[in-house]
Amino acid sequence: MTVITGLLFLVAAAGSVLGQDLSVPSTWREPENKYNLAQRIATSQNALDSLLPELNETIGYFNVLGYWQGGNVFSAMANEDYVTHLPLYQDVVTTYLNKAFALYADYSTQYNDDALWWATACYYAYRAYGDTNLLSHAVQTWENVKTFQISPQDAASDSIPTKSFPIMGTCDGKTMAGGVFWRPVANDTAVNSVTTGLFLTLSAYLAELTGNCTYTDSAIAAATWMQTLNMNSDGIALDTINANDCSRSPATELFTYNSGKLIEGLSVLSDVTGDESWRDFMTNTVAAAVKTNVWQGANGVITEGGDTEADSDVVGFKDILIRALHEAWRRSAENPEMQNLIKSYTNVQYNALLELASTENLPWRWYSSEWAGPQPTNFTAWGQLAALDVLVSVVDINPTV
Ligand SMILES: *[C@@H]1O[C@H](CO)[C@@H](O)[C@H](O)[C@H]1NC(C)=O
Ligand SMILES: *[C@@H]1O[C@H](CO)[C@@H](O)[C@H](O)[C@H]1NC(C)=O
Ligand SMILES: *[C@@H]1O[C@H](CO)[C@@H](O)[C@H](O)[C@H]1NC(C)=O
Ligand SMILES: *[C@@H]1O[C@H](CO)[C@@H](O)[C@H](O)[C@H]1NC(C)=O
């Protein structure tokens, strides 16, 4: 009897450790949607349109914004059309995804994550418009970046053909297989969450589309690397491990987009594999990301990347988390409590953007990248960029009225 009670206690305890609290915190600011569908669509299209005058044909993306951020504007445009079932941005998205592919071979510049942002934009564009030419850009880019994912054979031989130094096959006693190098240059040692999470996500989308197990295996390897090596004890994704010596980025370097790409990839991988352990990992990461105090206050409004003076990479991070949560929401009909948590979190950001962090200046509404306010006194391309995926997601995530 004692033994059985003890076992039951252990099982219950393990369950409560794994189970996440998916309730909406009572301290969140305005988690309810207040706008009808037509208003939400008009608001999102206004912000997307506001960036069109910044397009630069010579470079293939937007003045002021970085290359990777440019790919994300096209992602938001394609996703807008996907949720509204309109081809409003098809021409500009298609033209510029093709232009950048011609200018930058395999979308590659200095960083593998740059290439993957653009390749993912091509996947979203394929999903919205059925353009198989854009899908082929995504596949070609995937094949290039695949040479930077550590395979089990690479880990066993402590070397990878695309890098000039010996690698550590294991770190902390766990295989490094599945991790993806951040930069293509042969002597750069960083394997990081954003590149691995992007590769997980693109692999899972391609697996879902084609049923080709090469993509499924790559996605599982990337997800396993994240799970066993690069999460902190609060369930938030860490940033970097150097493959030459297993040294890590500071534990305080926690960014929305690292957990974001992981969530998006796991949401697709759960559907592809039907393996509930990936869904559990996703659910835990969602709960951790929306409730952590690392990048939001008790009111739930994200404070990361609120630079109003100049564009910076970090300004573009929080938008990626919101896009990922949207994908997880879309694929979680069996978990209404988590769907409600994601919807509420997204509406908190939306209401903050409209009430605390934007100014109407016709024809545009200007957004500040500091979502907690104050309201901006000028137009900044990066403030518009940071808001895009919130504005697109709320179109879809709230009831169709
Ligand atoms: C396009 O970008 C290039 C490189 O930054 C710049 O020199 C050029 O002035 C830009 N063109 C326009 C029309 O803004
Ligand atoms: C790494 O390689 C690049 C290009 O091949 C070179 O410019 C750079 O100096 C190298 N860095 C180190 C630390 O060796
Ligand atoms: C599966 O995908 C890989 C990577 O793109 C490709 O090399 C392979 O030919 C594909 N297999 C099939 C059967 O299409
Ligand atoms: C634009 O507005 C922000 C505040 O939203 C301010 O920090 C910045 O200095 C302004 N820039 C210019 C050029 O006025």
Order of helices and strands: HHEEHHHHHEEEHHEHHHHEEH
Q: Return the CATH class of the largest domain.
A: Mainly Alpha
Low-confidence stretches: 1-17
Tell me the total number of β-strands.
8
Mean pLDDT: 95
CATH topology of the largest domain: Glycosyltransferase
Protein name: Glycoside hydrolase family 76 protein
Keywords: Signal
Signal peptide: 1-19
InterPro entries: 6-hairpin_glycosidase_sf, Glyco_hydro_76, MUG_Protein
Overview of this protein structure:
- The chain contains 14 helices and eight strands.
- The protein has helices spanning 2-18, 37-50, 67-84, 90-103, 112-129, 132-146, 152-157, 193-210, 213-229, 256-273, 276-291, 317-330, 336-356, 381-397, and strands spanning 55-56, 61-62, 170-171, 174-175, 190-192, 240-242, 358-361, 364-367.
- It has two domains: 1-23 and 149-183 and 189-287, Glycosyltransferase (Alpha/alpha barrel); 31-56 and 295-401, no CATH class.
- The chain is 56% helix and 5% strand.
- By secondary structure, the chain is mainly α.
- Strand 3 (170-171) and strand 4 (174-175) form a beta hairpin.
- Helix 8 runs parallel beside helix 10 (256-273) and helix 9 (213-229) packs across helix 10 (256-273).
- Residues 56, 58-59, 63 line the site of one 2-acetamido-2-deoxy-beta-D-glucopyranose (NAG).
